Structure formats: C-alpha cells, structure tokens
Amino acid sequence: MKAMVYRGPYKIRIEEKDIPRIEHPNDAIIRVTKAAICGSDLHLYHGLMPDTRVGTTFGHEFIGVVHEVGPSVENLAVGDRVMVPFNIYCGSCYFCARGLYSNCHNVNPNATAVGGIYGYSHTCGGYDGGQAEYVRVPFADVGPSIIPDWLDDEDALLMTDALATGYFGAQLGDIRHGDTVAVFGAGPVGLCAAKSAWLMGAGRVIVIDHLEYRLAKAREFAHAETIDFAEHDDIVVTMKRATDNLGADVVIDAVGAEADGNFTQHLTGSKLKLQGGSPIALNWAIDSVRKGGTVSVMGAYGPIFSAVKFGDAVNKGLTLRMNQCPAKRQWPRLLEHIRNGYLTPSDIVTHRLPLEAIGEGYHMFSAKLDGCIKTIITMDAA
User: Fold this and answer.
1) Taking every annotated instance into account, which residue ranges of this chain make up the domain Alcohol dehydrogenase-like N-terminal (predicted)?
2) Residue 224's pLDDT band (cuts 50, 70, 90)
3) d(Cα 23, Cα 78) in Å, to the nearest integer?
4) Cα dist from 330 to 59, 61, 90, 113, 349, whole Å
5) Rounded to whole angstroms, how far apart are CA atoms 253 and 172?
6) Which domains does the chain have, with CATH numbers?
7) What CA–CA distance (Å, rounded) separates 368 from 366?
8) What value, to the nearest 5°, has the Cα angle with vertex 299 and ends 120 and 291?
9) How far, in Å, CA of 171 to CA of 141, rounded?
10) Strands 87-88 and 116-117
C-alpha cells in the first residue's frame, strides 16, 4: 500500500508499506477513503513531539471502509463505512468506564499521561495512522462507528477530531447563558470551538489570531467578532478594554505549542525545544479571562516543562480545564446538530489533495500558504 512516511523534521515521503494485518482478535483493517492533516500533525512534522520515529505514518483523522475484521469483532462487518475517533481505547479500564477515552490505561506504555492516538509518535503508543491506504484499528468494537447514510463523508471526517475537539473545548468552558467567550486561534479547532460556543449559550464570541484569511473564516463560519493581535501592542489590554475592563468569562486556547506573539517564548518553545511548546496563547488566556473565569485548553503541548503563568491563575481564582478530547463521547450530540443544520463542519475545508500530494499539503499548511485552513487527503486504494 501507499503511505505517508516520516523521515525527519520537515521530511515526509510517500512510500510502499505492507498492508497492516490483524494482530489481535479485536482488530479491524480499514481501507481509508479520506484522511485529513491536523494542526497538531504539524508539531510532529516540525520535530516538536518526543519519540517521533523515522518510518512512522501520521494521521489521526480518517474514515474508510472495513476491509477485514478479527474473529472477535461483532459490531462491524466487511464493507461497512466507518468513522474512527482519533483516540485508541479499550472501553473497559478505570478511565474508559468514566468516559475518559483519551486517558485509556491499556493502550499505551506511557499511559500515566495520554492514552493511545493514531499516528502520533511513540509517546502516544506508537500506532501508525491513517494517512495511508489502509490502517489497523485496535478494539474495533469500541472505537469506530458506522457512518449514517445521510451524513456526508467530509462532515464525518471532521467529527473524528477537529469538530469533536472544538466542541469539547467549548464544553469544558462551562459556558453560561450570555457569557463572553474568547478563542485564541482560528485554525480548525478554534473555528469549531467558536461555532460551538453559540450552541452552549454564549452571548458574545471573539476569535483572536494574526492571519487575516483565518479571521475572515471565523467571521464567516463562526459568526464571531475578530481581533488581529498583530495590530495591537498588548492583546491582553485590548481584550480587557473590549470586555468592560473585566476580561472574558471563558477563554479557549486552541493554539498550543507553536504559538507566535512573544519572541523569547517562541524561540525556547518552538525552535530550541527547551519547553514543551510555546505557551504564549495559554498565558494570554490566563491574563485575559476575568477573575473567577474559566480557561479551556485544547491546544497540544509536549510533555516537558512550559513557562506557564500559574501564579496568575491561582491569584485570579481561575478554573483550568483541559484534556485530549474523548471524541466518540461527543458524537451523539454532534450528529444531532449536523442533522438539524446547526453545524456543517466541512465548511472549513479549503483544500483537497490526493495522497501522492500530501507533502505539498503539509508544506502549504505549515507555511500558511494559499489560505490553507483544512486539507483533506483522498485515497484511491482498491
């Protein structure tokens, strides 16, 4: 099969790999029909995620058709059209029993922190991902779901991570009716978080970024107010002035480890890798939320130290909520919103490329070229 293969920072190739095989009775092999490039894939591409090994296939957002099932699989059959959450989880451990699928204790040797994630380094279990013609899906009776006939392929694909994570970010904000919600980052997750905030009762939604084409999408897709932080000397002061000098009720960090805006933090976190990422957006979130407010963290950070303003969070009495999204837990409500016309996640898709052009897709997304917000990769496996 053809698969995207990591060969070092900024180096990916399309190579021939063996079609994965059933390794456990609960496995399924999925023939991938569509995958996506996620903003967090760029952390791998840039060499920021520990233990990202040469030869790995990325991709944690994908849908496809069941190609083969293990002898213990009961809920799937060959030919089923399925969407697969980015989390790999057993469904029965202490954490899965509590709906914390992203913290499963049985799928990752490093599970004291994160659970398993497709195509996201050996820090997250070492599983190959779905930017390939075929992928092995463990615990196939637990993770994948059959795609309803009425659901568009691209909308289903966005539910595997970007939409679910954005919705979860808004959910963690514990938004009350009439709240002012600020979202740092107008990438796919930030856009979905901003859109979801309205569904949870927000009275005002503000999106902050420094790329005009992404801010334009925030106005169009999420109907949000927008602020270009590059146009202001101090974005925290600007946010305070925009909120009666109190701060937003809820702030969502949808940026993560490669945030711009502070040279020293960006240099030490993103370039020299002395921190687990550049916590600029997170510190801005802490400083621009009101006292007693809530900060929801959806941006991905590495597992090592980051210079976060924790003292400010303590002194302001903030609630900080964060986790990798347990994607499948969000699906029932998201399906309802999509069917009722409140959400059309595929509206954020800007580019569609064949697998052979995935290198171009990564470069375009990384360098912020051609108005790229979300790229879908289409497979042609027989």
Assistant:
1) 25-142
2) very high
3) 17
4) 20, 15, 17, 21, 21
5) 11
6) 2-161+326-378 (3.90.180.10), 162-322 (3.40.50.720)
7) 6
8) 155
9) 27
10) antiparallel
